[in-house]
User: Which sequence fits this backbone?
């Protein structure tokens, strides 16, 4: 339940200001190991993002099962976007989910009750729901993806990095397009395209 005299929106602001880089809620990105990633099958960027996503949701499901600060932040922010809310639920134990989601359910009920006479359109409720632009999980994974692509592109300036990439399956088309957008070098562009042609 919300603290007495604090509205849902004030509670959200209070939690947001309390959270900082040192908060246990913040999930740091894992160290990038390009050499190991390029030895696996498939797109190394996709593999890295999948690992980051699993670690992110494992971290959150652990926090939601017993950390009141995390439960309050999760509820005040109305969780993640629909896709990432379901992903979190899919790796959570039934017991952990029931504890972590109880506060979220209370927050939703509170907002609906507080606004029951004012809500006339679904768009008013949709304003509470995260989308790809403001979902904390989406933002975390986007940052991890951008950092990884930047480091991967940096490695292609070195002979060893090119050698490792040449021996790999290379990137999927989506991440290949990101990589091409990050270079102005014709040499690296040709290298990436010829590698992709060979692999596809």
Assistant:
């Amino acid at each position: 339940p919300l603290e007495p005299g604090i509205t849902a929106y004030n509670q959200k602001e209070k939690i947001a200001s309390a959270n900082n880089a040192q908060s246990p809620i913040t999930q740091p990105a894992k160290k990038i190991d390009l050499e190991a990633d390029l030895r696996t099958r498939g797109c190394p960027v996709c593999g890295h993002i999948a690992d980051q996503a699993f670690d992110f949701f494992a971290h959150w499901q652990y926090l939601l099962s017993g950390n009141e600060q995390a439960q309050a932040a999760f509820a005040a922010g109305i969780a993640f976007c629909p896709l990432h809310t379901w992903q979190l639920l899919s790796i959570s134990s039934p017991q952990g989910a029931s504890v972590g989601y109880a506060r979220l359910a209370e927050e939703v009920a509170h907002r609906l009750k507080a606004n029951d006479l004012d809500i006339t359109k679904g768009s008013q409720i949709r304003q509470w729901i995260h989308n790809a632009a403001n979902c904390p999980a989406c933002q975390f994974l986007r940052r991890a993806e951008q950092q990884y692509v930047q480091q991967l592109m940096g490695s292609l300036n070195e002979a060893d990095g090119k050698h490792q990439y040449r021996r790999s399956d290379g990137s999927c088309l989506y991440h290949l397009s990101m990589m091409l957008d990050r270079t102005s070098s014709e040499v690296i562009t040709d290298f990436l395209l010829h590698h992709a042609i060979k692999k596809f």
Observations:
- Confidence is low (pLDDT under 50) at residues 1-24.
